[in-house]
Input
Amino acid sequence: AQKVTQAQTEISVVEKEDVTLDCVYETRDTTYYLFWYKQPPSGELVFLIRRNSFDEQNEISGRYSWNFQKSTSSFNFTITASQVVDSAVYFCALSELNSGYSTLTFGKGTMLLVSP
Amino acid sequence: NAGVTQTPKFRVLKTGQSMTLLCAQDMNHEYMYWYRQDPGMGLRLIHYSVGEGTTAKGEVPDGYNVSRLKKQNFLLGLESAAPSQTSVYFCASSYSSIAKNIQYFGAGTRLSVL
Output
């Protein structure tokens, strides 16, 4: 069975602080994909990044960066110089093959509150 | 550029009533999904479809039925609503089922069952 753990339920920071959201996963698959989604207060889920199990290079996109470490089964997400607009719930997800078709298993999410 | 559209956005039901949630996508995606989101639980898969005319059970299928009569539409039905089905429901679609494909989500339907 696959599992995604986001141990941080809620994080509060002050604007301009850096913040890291943790994601730990469990899987028996050798090939898998990991995702991060953002859910702002408006409610929709927005895709942020996808990473496959064979690519352990860190990725940076503006103020966002992701650290994938297969050895520790972690896929952590860092926001540098946080802004109020970063306030949202962030979900980590793992793709899973289920009867030949892939489905996503989500973590429970981390609520990030950025105050001015 | 609609993407995934869910109707209605909000609904209040009484216990025992029935209703259907509609999901429509205009991206010609083969695969569609229904999730529910509950506080502290993340998103859990209810049912999914790998193509027109097909459906399959997800993690929490009990109390729900689905149909995929047209490729672009995926309907979620509650035959006899229960308070435990109070939740936010999300529909998603993806180009195919292989593991790397991104799922695109609708804006959600907030359902309250009294």
